[in-house]
């Protein structure tokens, strides 16, 4: 079930909210659990069993690990739980990839299985792993209530595409959270903003990306239009989903941490990753990079740690070489910044540093979105005129004219400009009073426009569903 669907917006969500707010607090986690299981089973009925099995092992392992606190056996149980989680994730997400590459390397013909990727498996697997690790470290107490733990693990607002919500961040909220009309309104506003990002912007940029792929008149200009369009599409698609998840969580009384903080205004690649998919980069930092030694080791070891972490980050996104190279690409850039650029303490104009970041990020997403390495290399070489294609075609100019307003809106919307203008407008009493009246009207108008798009539009899933 998609957030951006009529079924979710006008049937599922209203029904869940009515039941949720009618029952006493002690039953609210149960309602969330049942709603989340229905939400997931709507599209993945068979894989719901797999998800529940993964969650149950995490629950019982957590209890066992806590009972052995301070003993070596506790560490063994934690490792066992992690291995179980990784085996499940590895089989369903990476089996075919590894077998295909093994067959190519050895000229054998081991069978490849037509395994469909369970939605959200990367996200709920990371939830479970962080939970058992934190229990072992003594950072949190193991959850005694199976219903509460399953409600956390299956929270439908962020179940299939994040952000990665750690148990430690919402443990208290699972047992004691506040509900108010103000929270419901603010959450609804955040949800509608995210929904607008997805339906009105990401889907429109996705159409331009598709038109580029279908075109037989490639040019340098058209390649750059495509690259920028996809860079905006993935931002509005994924940050839009995160906004919706955070907004829904707020409606139900939860406060999820931010997952995006205007990454396209970054002035370094290091800063970019402090702003982009924050929950993922912080997860790898806390559960992989730091346990490997982090920055407390030699430079050579730091370089090795960074390469491993970013290779895993790329692999997390998908079972393909372009994802692995995408991760290593950022590893190299981060290593160069850490040990060369930052060490030199060069004073670079803000505009130059920003251009440097965005060019590298745009190139990275061309690699990220490629169907294979050959296509990635061809697209990137073509962007710099190394494939013999022309600089400009009439088709490229047509699409540039057709999408120019949308591209400008997308670029401005990816910066804090609109937010700052809004905050400055409501500083005084007059502006605040006007906003109090106009904001609900605008939100209702957005919902009506989005509904029109959804009724007339085609199925358009979130990009991160495949990860």
Key descriptive features of the protein:
mainly alpha; 73% helix
Structural commentary:
- The chain is mainly alpha-helical.
- It is 73% helix and 0% strand.
- It has helices at 6-22, 28-43, 47-67, 72-106, 121-137, 146-154, 167-175, 181-214, 220-251, 269-275, 278-289, 299-317, 321-344, 350-369, 373-383, 394-413, 417-425, 429-456.
- Helix 1 (6-22) runs antiparallel to helix 2 and helix 8 packs across helix 18 (429-456).
- The chain is globular.
How many helices does DSSP assign? 18
Assess the beta-strand content as a share of residues: under 5%
* Relative helix content: over 70%
Q: What is the residue-mean pLDDT, rounded to a whole number? A: 91
How do the SSEs run, as a string of H and E?
Answer: HHHHHHHHHHHHHHHHHH
């Amino acid at each position: 079930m998609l957030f951006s669907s009529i079924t979710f917006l006008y049937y599922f969500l209203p029904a869940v909210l009515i039941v949720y707010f009618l029952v006493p607090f002690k039953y609210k986690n149960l309602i969330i659990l049942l709603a989340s299981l229905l939400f997931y089973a709507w599209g993945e009925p068979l894989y719901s069993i797999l998800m529940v099995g993964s969650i149950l092992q995490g629950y019982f392992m957590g209890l066992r690990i806590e009972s052995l606190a301070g003993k070596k056996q506790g560490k063994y149980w934690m490792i066992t739980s992690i291995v179980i989680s990784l085996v499940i994730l590895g089989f369903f997400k990476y089996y075919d990839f590894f077998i295909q590459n093994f067959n190519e390397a050895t000229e054998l013909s081991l069978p490849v299985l037509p395994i469909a990727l369970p939605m959200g498996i990367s996200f709920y697997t990371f939830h479970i792993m962080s939970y058992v690790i934190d229990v072992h470290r003594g950072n949190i107490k193991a959850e005694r209530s199976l219903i509460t733990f399953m409600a956390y693990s299956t929270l439908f607002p962020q179940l299939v595409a994040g952000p990665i919500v750690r148990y430690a961040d919402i443990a208290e909220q699972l047992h004691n959270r506040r509900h108010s009309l103000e929270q419901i309104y603010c959450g609804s506003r955040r949800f509608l903003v995210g929904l607008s990002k997805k339906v009105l912007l990401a889907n429109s940029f996705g159409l331009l990306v598709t038109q580029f792929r279908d075109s037989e008149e490639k040019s340098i200009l058209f390649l750059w239009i495509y690259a920028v369009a996809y860079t905006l599409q993935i931002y509005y698609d994924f940050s839009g989903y995160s906004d919706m998840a955070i907004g829904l969580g707020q409606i139900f009384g939860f406060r999820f941490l931010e997952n995006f903080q205007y990454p396209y205004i970054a002035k370094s690649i290091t800063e970019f990753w402090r702003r982009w998919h924050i929950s993922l980069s912080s997860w790898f930092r806390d559960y992989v990079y730091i346990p490997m030694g982090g920055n407390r080791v030699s430079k050579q070891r730091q370089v090795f740690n960074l390469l491993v972490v970013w290779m895993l980050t790329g692999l997390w996104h998908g079972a393909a070489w372009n994802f692995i190279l995408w991760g290593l690409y950022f590893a190299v850039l981060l290593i160069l910044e850490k040990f060369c650029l930052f060490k030199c303490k060069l004073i670079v104009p803000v505009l130059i540093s920003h251009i440097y970041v965005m060019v590298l990020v745009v190139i990275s997403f061309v690699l990220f979105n490629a169907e294979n390495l050959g296509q990635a290399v061809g697209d990137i070489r073509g962007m710099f005129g190394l494939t013999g294609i022309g600089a400009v075609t009439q088709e490229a100019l047509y699409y540039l004219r057709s999408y120019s307003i949308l591209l400008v809106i997308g670029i401005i919307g990816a910066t804090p400009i609109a937010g700052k203008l809004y905050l400055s407008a409501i500083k005084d009493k007059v502006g605040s009073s006007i906003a109090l009246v106009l904001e609900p009207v605008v939100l209702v108008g957005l919902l009506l426009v989005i509904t029109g798009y959804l009724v007339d539009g085609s199925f358009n899933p979130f990009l991160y569903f495949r990860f």
